[in-house]
Amino acid sequence: MKSFFDQTVEVQEVGGCTALEPYIQRIRNGEMTRAIVACDTDLTSFVTPQVQEHCNIIR
Question: 31 is in which domain, residue-wise?
């Protein structure tokens, strides 16, 4: 990644979309400003149809 990006990046696996929810909430309310959450939307779009968009949350 160093040839493309000059920042240090850490990737953490948390185990699933329900485990990401605390991180998503902290990003939305401004507690985490330097974090990005990436997740798939396989079944979550059916369970929670009202997904709020945020530039630090990648679905």
Answer: 17-58
